[in-house]
TrEMBL record:
Pfam family, one: HTH_3
Residue stretches spanning the membrane: 102-121, 141-162, 193-219, 225-252
UniProt-listed PROSITE patterns: HTH_CROC1
Protein name, UniProt field: Helix-turn-helix transcriptional regulator
Keywords: DNA-binding, Membrane, Transmembrane, Transmembrane helix
Annotated source species: Amedibacillus dolichus
Length: 269
């Protein structure tokens, strides 16, 4: 472990920002940044101050060996989760299940009142349809409930069974080679994500004006209720796509954000 890696680890173990450490050592934040990025080394007197501040010997500070202290290992075990490649891929697969489930769930929730709207339209605007107000309300409400219940339950079950909940609360240690593989995987998926998002936005831009035009042209007629159904379907598809893509993008950002990462040799950087 180099001096740059070591001072970064020590600062993180104490929960200090670069500004906090700079204030304690009476130097600028830029100096701390240069030390941690191996662009410069502190003076001899400042090295002694650093050793005293972190309560380690000067030899420990300057040696290439990692800092082996009970505090350091306990801190890592309490605050960080280590993400190996297989675990990171499993995490993303689990998130994709939740994302798809949430997107489909939102779509079905938006589609759930379709039968209710259809029966109400038939009862109100088609006199010889034979559908009474009670029948429209009863069957429509029942169908809405039967669709919404499983639609809302599916993502909830996936969330409750999510095996990486601790990764959402704590920092994640990601090895450099794993980080590179994740960045390449995100790059491969970026174009499909963008295409889906663009299609969802176009669908919104087509659906909402169409609904407004139907309302203006037909007023209180059966076509207006069909327009409401069109609006709900378009919103369900578009927002379901956006929700699904958004959750997956956030998952990649969670793994690739500026938390502590590991070098290929397992040392902190």
């Amino acid at each position: 472990m180099t001096f740059a890696e070591k001072i970064y680890q020590l600062r993180r173990q104490n929960g200090w920002s670069q500004e906090d450490l700079a204030h304690r050592l009476h130097v600028s934040r830029q100096s701390i940044s240069k030390w941690e990025n191996a662009l410069s080394m502190p003076e001899g007197t400042k090295l002694s101050e650093i050793a005293r501040l972190f309560q380690i010997s000067l030899d420990e500070l300057l040696s290439e060996d990692p800092i082996a202290s009970p505090f350091a290992s306990a801190y890592c075990s309490l605050q960080w989760d280590i993400a190996h490649l297989q675990e990171a891929e499993d995490f993303l697969k689990a998130v994709r299940k939740i994302a798809h489930s949430c997107g489909i769930s939102f779509l079905f929730c938006m589609l759930s009142p379709f039968l209710l709207l259809y029966l109400v339209a038939q009862h109100q605007f088609v006199p010889d349809s034979g559908i009474s107000e009670q029948m429209a309300a009863g069957l429509g409400s029942l169908s809405t409930s039967l669709i919404m219940l499983p639609a809302m339950s599916a993502p909830l079950i996936h969330i409750l069974c999510f095996p990486y909940r601790s990764w959402l609360r704590r920092d994640i240690l990601v090895a450099a080679d794993v980080r590179q593989a994740l960045m390449e995987d995100r790059q491969r998926r970026l174009r499909p994500f963008i295409l889906r998002i663009v299609l969802a936005i176009l669908l919104l831009l087509l659906t909402i004006p169409s609904f407004v035009m139907i309302c203006i042209q037909y007023g209180e007629r059966i076509e207006t209720i069909y327009g409401v159904m069109l609006l709900l379907g378009g919103l369900g598809i578009a927002l379901g796509i956006l929700i699904s893509c958004g959750i997956q993008i956030i998952a990649y950002q969670r793994l690739l954000s500026d938390h502590v990462h590991l070098t290929p040799y397992g040392t902190l950087r």
